[in-house]
Amino acid sequence: MPRQIDFEVELTTTPTPDDERRALLVDPGFGRLHTDHMVTAHWSADKGWYDGRLHPYGPFVLDPSTNFMHYGQSIFEGMKAYKLEDGTVTLFRPRENAARFNLSAQRLALPTIEEDDFLAAVELLVRTDHEWIPTADGASLYLRPFMMGTEVGLGVRPSADALFSVLALPSGNYFAGGIRPLKLWLAEDSSRAAPGGTGEAKCAGNYAASLVAQQAAIARGCDQVVFLDAVERRWVEELGGMNLFFVYADGRIATPALSGTILRGVTRNSIITLARDAGHEVEERRVAVDEWREGVTSGEITEVFACGTAAVVTPVGELHWTGGSVATKAEGLEGVTASLRQRLLDIQYGRAEDPYGWRVPVAL
């Protein structure tokens, strides 16, 4: 279908001074800074999409009875823009994010948005605020498209109004202190998602549901939490915000299969493609937590790593649970994990050819 949203442009009259912006980009952290502008568009059941605008970054004014505050109709995406050595600005597989955004919208009874409109909003913001893209190793402009139900009034029903928005946040490495093997805590008594639920949707409620387990992990000195399936509490699913991979001594790689309860990670899909093209047999299947524990102990599993848009690829060093733990022999970023991470980053940052057409240039 043709595009449905025309975006008007209202530039800020008080842009961040160049010297201040450059100072901020030296160490942006993750998710702390924002650029000068944002994009918004409104939807109603009567009018469809309307009032698309790029305008100065600022707060929303919302009625206390706004739908999403009470009933959780809220979804989002995570994606990145990169500035290559030649000055070209690119996005990485943005149509995958647009497609997943619409899957999430359908699951949460929110309106879908034409993929071309989604991409136009993202590209407009990147084009306007491209000077905010940091160029340090591992840095990028993190993009957060999101949507929420904005009908005013209490009543458990799909919202008749919605707000779509895109934010841009200059970001460095996701984990403070750089890349190091993660310590994970096994959530044995809580689940992230259940069959028939919202596990494969990127909705705010899934992350809220993971936080009590994440809190328990941090209290035990761990970085992240691992969730098992909600039925048998036996099968590994994912972390609170990343997919998992297991590397075997014979070169095989396994990752939990998509089953409706696991997010369809864009980075996950990219890693599977890169690994297969590098000659690895990649199995998308159920992986039991006992296979993980026993495989690491015996040496059959030589590496474990997690992946996601924000963290890219990160090694897993230890798995802890009540009464025990197991650790891989890897002391840092090495082996297959390091190779796949580097291959992916080289494509994203333009240091290598892109045979897949994953890089999408933004016209400045």
Shape label:
globular
What oligomeric state is this? single chain
Low-confidence stretches: none
- Main pleated-sheet profile: 9 strands, mixed
Supply Rg: 21 Å
Number of separate helices: 8
Derived from helix and strand composition plus strand pairing, the structural class reads: alpha+beta
Q: Termini, distance in Å?
A: 26 Å
What is the average per-residue confidence, as pLDDT, rounded to a whole number?
95
Order of helices and strands: EHEEHEEEHHEEEHEEEEHEHEEEHE
Walk me through the structure.
It is a single chain. Helix 6 packs across helix 8 (335-348). The longest helix is centred in the middle third of the chain and has 16 residues, at 204-219. The mean pLDDT is 95. 26% of the residues lie in helices and 29% in strands. Strand 16 and strand 17 form a beta hairpin. Strands 1, 2, 3, 4, 5, 6, 7, 8 and 18 form a 9-stranded mixed sheet that branches. It is α+β, with helices and mostly antiparallel strands. The two termini are 26 Å apart.
Question: What layout of secondary structure does this protein have?
Answer:
Layout: E1 7-9, H1 18-26, E2 37-44, E3 48-56, H2 67-71, E4 74-76, E5 79-83, E6 89-92, H3 94-107, H4 115-128, E7 140-149, E8 161-171, E9 182-187, H5 204-219, E10 224-228, E11 236-239, E12 243-248, E13 253-256, H6 266-277, E14 282-285, H7 289-298, E15 301-308, E16 312-321, E17 324-327, H8 335-348, E18 359-361
Parallel strand pairs: 1-3, 9-10, 9-16, 13-14
Antiparallel strand pairs: 2-3, 2-8, 4-7, 5-6, 5-7, 6-18, 7-8, 10-11, 12-13, 12-15, 15-16, 16-17
